[in-house]
C-alpha cells in the first residue's frame, strides 16, 4: 500500500498492513519533523505538497527496485501532505520479509 494523506500516521496501523504469518521480520522507518534544519533553529512545522499521481508512481519505482534487490514480502508507505508539526511523522515506511538477513 502506498498512500498520501493529510491525517497523522498511526504506526501500528502501518505495521499491521505488512504483518503476516509468513513474515519473520518487520522493519520500520519514520521521518519526523525536527526543530531545526541546515539554516535555522526555529522550525515550528513543515507544510508538504505533492502531485499525488506522480509521487505514487515514483514511490512504486523505488519499491520495485528494492524488491529486485531484497527478499521483500510486503511494503506499506504513507507520505503526509499539509501541515506536519514538530515531532510528528512526515513519512512512515514498513517492510516485511521472511527473515532479516539483509
Describe this structure as you would to a colleague:
- This protein has 102 residues and is α+β, with helices and mostly antiparallel strands.
- It has one domain: Molybdopterin biosynthesis MoaE subunit (Aldehyde Oxidoreductase, domain 3, Alpha-Beta Complex), CATH 3.90.1170.
- The chain is built from 2 helices and 6 strands.
- The strands form 2 sheets. Strands 1-4-6-2 form a 4-stranded mixed sheet, sandwiched between helices.
- It is globular, with a radius of gyration of 15 Å.
- The mean pLDDT is 91.
Secondary structure topology:
Blueprint: E1 2-5, H1 11-18, E2 25-32, E3 45-48, H2 52-69, E4 72-80, E5 82-85, E6 89-97
Parallel strand pairs: 1-4
Antiparallel strand pairs: 2-6, 3-5, 4-6
